[in-house]
Design brief:
globular; 5 helices; ELMO domain-containing protein; ELMO_domain-containing; mainly alpha
Length: 114
């Protein structure tokens, strides 16, 4: 727990609470976004308002988008509590996960990647 997590676009000082709905897929999507679109991620994070009561913090929004897209596409999420279940392993390495993570750096979903 640390106050700087809020600076990175999480709702509070403990980012684990933001990952409840998006699980490992949300984490991997944010990691992909930060590693592959670093300049854009830095700009967005640095320009979000300090007080986010009326806005959705960027990291939390990314996790939520991942969760909604996976639900829409019928993919079960690996959560922090069920990551050891064999039937769920490998989802975060799937083309779907990569396609969802690419949406963090594009205006629209890359239909070809799905």
């Amino acid at each position: 727990k640390h106050p700087l997590w809020k600076t990175l676009g999480f709702q509070g000082e403990d980012p684990q609470t933001d990952f409840r709905g998006g699980g490992v897929l949300g984490l991997r999507a944010l990691l992909y976004w930060a590693e592959n679109h670093t300049e854009m991620a830095t700009k967005i994070i640095n320009t979000q308002p300090e007080k986010v009561e009326h806005q959705y913090p960027v990291s939390t929004a990314g996790i939520t988008i991942s969760a909604h897209l996976s639900t829409f596409l019928g993919v079960k999420l690996i959560t922090l509590n069920n990551k050891s279940k064999p039937e769920l392993k490998g989802i975060s390495e799937s083309p779907l996960a990569r396609a969802i993570s690419r949406t963090f750096g594009r205006d629209e979903l890359d239909a070809e990647a799905l």
